[in-house]
Amino acid sequence: MTLARAIAGTYSALVLGAVVAPALVLEHAGDRGGLGASDGADLIGASMAVGVPAAALAWRRMRPSAWRSGSRTDVGIAGLISFSVLAAAASALPTLVLHATTGLAALDADSGWAVPVVWALTQAAAVVAGEATHRGVLCWLGG
Amino acid sequence: MAELNRRQLLAAALGAAGTLAVGSGVTRELWPLLGREDLVPGRTPQVALQEGAWTRAADRLTFAAVGDTGSGGRQAMAVANRMAEGYRDAPYGLVTHLGDLCYYGSVEDRFDDVFTRPMRPLIDAGVRFELAIGNHDGELHHSDESLAEIDAELRLLGTPARHYTSSHGPVDFFYLDSSTPGLFGDDSSEQLEWLDDALVSSQNQWKVVCMHHPVYSSGAHGSTPGADEVLEPLLARRKVDLVLSGHDHHYERTRPQDGVTYVVSGGGCKTTPVGRSRFTASAASALQYLHVDVVGDRMTGRSVRADGRVLDRFELRAREGR
Description:
The complex is a heterodimer of chains A (143) and B (322).
Chain A: H1 2-33, H2 41-62, H3 64-69, H4 72-104, H5 114-142
Helix pairs in contact in A: 1-2, 1-4, 2-5, 4-5
Chain B: H1 6-36, E1 60-66, H2 74-89, E2 94-97, H3 107-124, E3 128-131, H4 144-157, E4 164-168, E5 171-175, H5 189-201, E6 206-210, H6 227-230, H7 232-237, E7 242-245, E8 251-254, E9 261-265, E10 280-284, E11 288-295, E12 298-305, E13 310-317
Parallel strand pairs in B: 1-2, 2-3, 5-6, 6-7, 7-9
Antiparallel strand pairs in B: 1-11, 4-5, 8-9, 8-10, 11-12, 12-13
Keywords (chain B): Hydrolase, Signal
InterPro entries (chain B): Calcineurin-like_PHP (IPR004843), Metallo-depent_PP-like (IPR029052), Metallophosphoesterase_PAP (IPR051558), TAT_signal (IPR006311)
Organism (chain B): Blastococcus aggregatus
């Protein structure tokens, strides 16, 4: 039981890390270049707002009781695949959307909230994609 | 250990391979891309500046030099904001833009985002902008599209030609189009002859050459191939004081090379790593611009980081023997 809890906890932490890491990368790049310390805080906040619930969802999926209710192997495999989908999408979707909207000048940065909201929405989409993948893989393996 | 059925085996293999591929792709490609580019839109600088506050005198000039500002992103806005703060502290009437005015699209579509919005306080204060064409203002080897892009930039910024001179107080500026196949290549003679004539006929105390591609750089792009053979001897022979360039996204100042000091001031919105070479006097990978004061025969330069920290300070004396 302790091992199962440790695995679920580590998995949740990895999910949180995958969601928050892109914002930390941006913060680090700005910091290295000489931006003020607070310049990346809004994106880190937005990522935390998405990442914490995502980590809680991940815990629910991987917690020991979930392992008992289904096949432990199936849950582990679904967790692995859904994590790779989530990790890729959590970095790729904001990058793609920012690149597209930079060219189109579609984001109203002066409003202060538009950029973190768009950032959070793209990462939320990544979490949804990870969750859907997890369920889809479980369903496929169970069938 | 439980035996895996065929479906589980396939899914496990896919999961393991996917995780490895994603780990590699994200950490080697996406995160460096995010860190290198300036994709997050930034807020317009909100600094109110006094119009025309700089000193006008025959023996004095204060100007700013910045390159590679063309993202319109958060980092570009931070540098532009620092330039406005720099104006407030020590007003200047001229910005020499060292190229790469526009990334991620055409300048016709993005001019407001990459220039008007970030530079609004300086534009409103009446500061003049002069542009040295960069490679993102048209590819190194010109296509019809890139030539149209260059023409659009020249028109939007009111720049008279692809290479030209301007005179401000005690300083003559010489702007080169280093993206033309020709400055360093087979067709170099036309622009080099023009530069030679212009330098010879220059009577001012200071000669400053502005171009996008650096003659000397210890950064990602490095020193421009061929520049040491075709351009450097001319700059030395005509006793140019200072050569300003961008292209590499860092700050670097050389020790005088045959009397000429070379500065890369390309940290206008992105940063790339910079090392040190035998010619390096000062170097930093930073978001920055260069603030230059000329008083008589003394020129003082400060490389100012986006947060206001001074990265480098140097002083030059006007070269003798003209």
